[in-house]
Amino acid sequence: MFKVINKIKFSPNKNRMRILSNTKEAIIHFNSSKSKNLKFLLKKRFDWMNKFIDKNDTGLEVGSGAGFAKFFINNKNLKTSDFSSDDHLDFKNVDAQSTNFNDNTFDYVIASNMIHHVPYPIKFFKEINRILKKDGKLIIFDAYCSILLQLVMILMKHEGFDFTINVWDEKNPKSDEEDVWDGNIGVTNLIFDNKDEFNKNLGDIFSIEYEKLTECFIFLNSGGVTSQTFYIPLSDKLLNMLNCIDNFLIKLFPNIFCLGRRIVLKKNDN
């Protein structure tokens, strides 16, 4: 992984993710006629997950934010949760690092763009393993900290990244414990890029069942998920063309253009 710089962090009053994010406004925008770009992005971001979910499975989404997963996941037993107390959530004030759910409760757990916000990611993985049933799946979408994403974060002051941390250390936080909007978008690269390290540290509880790199300009031109940014409205035809361009660029130059990663982890029997 090429690094523009090793780390950058923005103070809470400069973090645009914290300043501009608003889940209630995000829901209003999603339900408006102006959200075609966003809906296209979110369909791509969630629809692939359905092939890993059975009709009668019991599921939980952690870090749900505006709760968009329910619009795209076919399984009707999915429950949303977040650290917040927003009315649209099924479970409120849930810390995904330490939940109140019983052991072996869910067939699958979805974590979309939230692991890089978790202060103690290894604690998170162990907790999700605890609440998953036998052969349960942790279905992940998260940032891929390519050159382009690093530059976007630097220019927009939209979260930060730190490649110097020891991601496997469970004692020191990887993001600000007091600020739920703080994030370290380098975390998932540090966890998943080196498969030997992953297997050494998490291989006893999870195995990687599926992985794919995805997203570039369809994200940058989406208008933002929980915070509004500039975008150019496009037709379905142009959005599909843009997605094809994304796939081509990511296949050739993933470390330059890729912005997202899909991962499915299967719970190992201990």
Short description:
With 270 residues, this protein is α/β, with parallel strands linked by helices. The chain is built from ten helices and eight strands. Strands 3-2-4-5-8-7 form a six-stranded mixed β-sheet.
Structural commentary:
With 270 residues, the chain is α/β, with parallel strands linked by helices. It has a single domain, classed as 3-Layer(aba) Sandwich (Rossmann fold). The strands form two sheets. Strands 3-2-4-5-8-7 form a six-stranded mixed β-sheet. The protein has a two-stranded antiparallel sheet with strand order 1-6. Helix 4 links the parallel strand 4 and strand 5. The longest helix has 17 residues. The radius of gyration is 18 Å and the shape is globular.
Write the layout of secondary structure elements.
Elements: E1 7-8, H1 16-20, H2 23-30, H3 36-47, E2 59-62, E3 78-80, E4 106-112, H4 121-131, E5 132-143, H5 147-156, E6 161-162, H6 187-192, H7 195-202, E7 206-214, H8 217-220, H9 236-252, H10 254-257, E8 260-267
Parallel strand pairs: 2-3, 2-4, 4-5
Antiparallel strand pairs: 1-6, 5-8, 7-8
Summary keywords:
31% helix; two-stranded antiparallel sheet; 270 residues; 6-stranded mixed beta sheet; Rossmann fold; alpha/beta; single chain; globular
